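User: I'm new to structure prediction. If I give you an amino acid sequence, what do you actually give back? Let's try with this one:
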Amino acid sequence: MKLSTPKRIAVHAILIVGSCIFIFPFLWLIITSLKPVEQIMQMPPDWLPRAHYATLGGERVKVVKEPPLAEPSVIVVAVIPPRPGEDGPRNERKVLPAKSFRNGLAEIKLAETREAATIRVPATLEKHVPEAWVLVREKLERLPTDPGPPPRWDCVGPDQIETRIEPAWWNYRGAIRYTGYYEGSFLGLSYRLPMFVIYLRNTLIVAVFGVIGTTLSSALAAYGFARISWRGRDALFLVALSTMMVPFTVTMVPLYGVFKALGWVGTLKPLWVPAFFGSAFNIFLLRQFFRTIPHDLSDAARIDGCSEFAIFWRIILPLSKPALAVVALFHFMWAWNDFMGPLLFLTRQETFTLSLGLQNYQSQHGGSEWHFLMAASTLMILPIVVLFFFTQRTFIQGISTTGMKN
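Assistant: Good question. You get back a string of structure tokens that encode the predicted 3D arrangement of the chain. For your 406 residues, that looks like this:
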């Protein structure tokens, strides 16, 4: 049925709007990962990452602006230790509205230091600059690192703050280093890697081994259900399909008991070894694909002396590459994003996967480092996006086609 031009325009408009709705969370994730931490919870939200600059002592410096800024303000510069995993400058500059000064004093809390320091500064800086320096240096000298040069002060107005669109790319470096480092040795050589890299290594181990196991085992089982006739085949296939209706929450306690008896709890084995025993959905998908391949090909191979396994390996599998790619991609995405399995079976941080390791961004230091969390989440989903981008043609072919027709 051919649609008229107005109907086609309406259909395309609906599809575009729906696509924008679905892609919005992904775009918001990327935008948030590029924002400084003080802009993430800003209300009303700012849709683009911005940086603020002001002239301080004849030098153009980056400042942290606490909105709204509608009156003359004070820029405070203090030398402090960087945040965990952050490579940024050791200076923190805050723009404080003049109304924040009460009773001639202002309190400035350096929350990013390991020992939070509160600095009380006289409000009339023009008359008390030396006294302000003394008070600030007394606080900074108590910090575990050298406070460095004395702070500088200046008063600026809102029109003197320059705002630029500037992505905070250092969030990604900070996200990788935020969870600390792991020290180990391999073949007598010591190494020190960020925990994020260890999480990535563990996730790749689980995903790659799981893809190999589920693809081979599901294909073997599907071949038996689709191409070999034996008594009770259809009944057993229905039993296999019925396991799809059993939720993981029902089986996780018995599974935990089995893996604990095997001594596998705390290792990656419970996450990839079960993949070598097939998956009901993947068996169903491959069985339906195998059934569409003509039996004449198998009969010709048997006449030539091929065994059943040789027919499976040399004829059926090469003709089923699109369906096998779908199974592999589905399992890779599931293993990459799996959270419940690692939460249940993994007990040591050096065995965590990426999905479980992201919890550390929400629990360390008593709060959530949202800019690091969003950057780490972006790094986590990037391989899935790239993988689908390069395999989408094979993936769509495996979903939309049913193999060779009889």
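You can read the tokens as a compact description of the fold. Here is one thing that stands out. Residues 50-166 form one domain.
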